[in-house]
Write a structure and sequence with these properties.
By secondary structure, this protein is mainly alpha-helical. The chain has two domains: 1-196, SecY subunit domain (Preprotein translocase SecY subunit), CATH 1.10.3370; 200-388, Preprotein translocase SecY subunit (Orthogonal Bundle). The protein is 72% helix and 6% strand. It has 20 helices and five strands. It has a three-stranded antiparallel beta sheet. The protein has a two-stranded antiparallel sheet with strand order 2-3. The protein is globular. The two termini are 27 Å apart. The relative contact order is 0.11.
């Protein structure tokens, strides 16, 4: 990996892409420290424990790089865009017009991208309004108004600042994808999570539990190795292509494979489950009544009901999202169309049933793996009473984005090497 990074700096074009990516990521981190107008900065500092103490807002604050805890311009981060992308991807299964667009190639993808942007603006606007009232609910713990002179004009100003910040982050992420290295949206989440690394190291080093201090590096390395092992794990289905005669020439033939990953859903089921389990505590925080507080305490992230509910939802969403993103019937039709077949399996419906059976067997260990990684920090906190700074979701995103970025960097280097050889 180190050799790949050093080799990338020797190629001028890749070096410019890396510099462009680093510049936009630096601007993104700068926007996560600029507070929106109309906010009492001192009151915001007094409520920092609400966002960093392992509570329900900790996950969202991590994804925004601490911008939510500072009520910064980029407080919403890139999460509204990710939510809009997931919604559009799921709607393609149930809405015939969107499904037709998805099969129209590049033109259809451009239209779906436009719809995703429009939905992102709407979600950002609604989410910004909800956060404004959530910030006001923290005034009791801050001891002073979080928002000075709260009225319709101030509300509109803050909401528009947060919405425009989210749109700007979305535009910067797309620029990184087009002109930089790696996926821009993923890299922004990566930068947000890694920005908390110094605080995490400090919390680990100053922890009073000396056993935890000694064991934490070995535990972290073991978890990272397990994540890499499962993320890269795949079942390769052999595919044989028949030879075809076109005119006087014979083309085709050969053997390849169809890779089915153990974790085809990625980190999406964990985000879904965390969002659903965050709903009861958020309601309790906003309503501030007896039954709402009891509900919030019952589903606290540090208690067993939250861990059990999150595990169940992760397993269910893993099966659901895998079924949405990988259609065995379409894969079987594509193989049959291009003259491919799986040895020992008849083309058409038998191939689809074979792929569906293999996929079901792969999805179950993948779902258990996601649930285990997501529940590990909570179990460690309960057993050791130690502060585990990075959650399982953050760890999955960091490792996954790092692997994908390195693969793209290696492909860029390989392409440049081929060009040099041809010249």
């Amino acid at each position: 990996m180190v050799a790949t990074i050093l080799s990338a700096f020797t190629v001028p074009e890749i070096r410019k892409k890396l510099a462009f990516t680093a510049l936009l990521l630096a601007l993104y981190r700068l926007g996560a420290h600029i507070p929106v107008p109309g906010v009492n900065v001192q009151a915001v500092r007094d409520i920092q424990e609400e966002f960093g103490g392992g509570g329900i807002l900790n996950l969202l604050n991590t994804f925004s790089g601490g911008g939510l805890g500072r009520i910064a311009v980029f407080a919403l981060g890139i999460m509204p865009y990710i939510t809009a992308s997931i919604i559009l991807q799921l709607l393609q299964v149930v809405v015939p017009s969107l499904e037709k667009l998805s099969k129209e190639g590049e033109v259809g993808q451009v239209r779906i991208t436009q719809y995703t942007r429009y939905l992102t603006v709407g979600l950002s606007f609604a989410q910004a309004i909800g956060y404004v009232f959530l910030f006001r609910s923290f005034e009791a713990s801050a001891g002073q108004p979080v928002i000075d002179d709260f009225d319709v004009a101030t509300l509109f100003l803050i909401v528009m600042a947060l919405t425009c910040g989210c749109v700007l982050v979305m535009w910067m992420g797309e620029l990184i994808t087009q002109r930089g290295i790696g996926n821009g949206i993923s890299l922004m989440i990566f930068a947000s999570i890694v920005s908390g690394l110094p605080n995490g190291v400090q919390a680990w080093w100053t922890n009073p539990d000396q056993v935890f201090v000694v064991m934490m590096p070995f535990l972290a390395l073991a978890v990272i190795a397990a994540v890499v092992f499962v993320q890269e794990g795949q079942r390769r289905i052999p595919v044989q292509y028949a030879k075809r005669v076109i005119g006087r020439r014979m083309s085709g033939g050969g053997q390849t494979y169809l890779p089915l990953r153990v974790n085809m859903a990625g980190v999406i089921p964990v985000i879904f489950a965390a969002s659903i389990m965050a709903f009861p505590p958020t309601v309790g925080q906003l309503i501030q009544s007896g039954w709402a507080q009891d509900l919030s305490n019952f589903f606290s992230p540090s208690k067993a009901p939250y861990v059990i509910g999150e595990t169940v939802f992760i397993i269910l969403f893993t099966y659901f999202y895998t079924a949405v993103t990988f259609n065995p019937v379409d894969q079987a039709d594509n193989l049959k169309k291009y003259g491919g077949f799986i040895p020992g399996v008849r083309p058409g419906r038998p191939t689809a049933e074979f792929l569906d059976r293999i996929l079901a067997r792969l999805t179950f260990p993948g779902a258990l793996y996601l649930a285990a990684v997501a529940a590990l920090p909570t179990i460690l906190i309960n057993q050791t009473s130690a502060s585990f700074f990075f959650g399982g979701t953050s760890l999955l995103i960091v490792v996954g984005v790092a692997l994908d970025t390195m693969k793209q960097l290696e492909s860029q280097l390989m392409m440049r090497n081929y060009e040099g050889f041809l010249k």
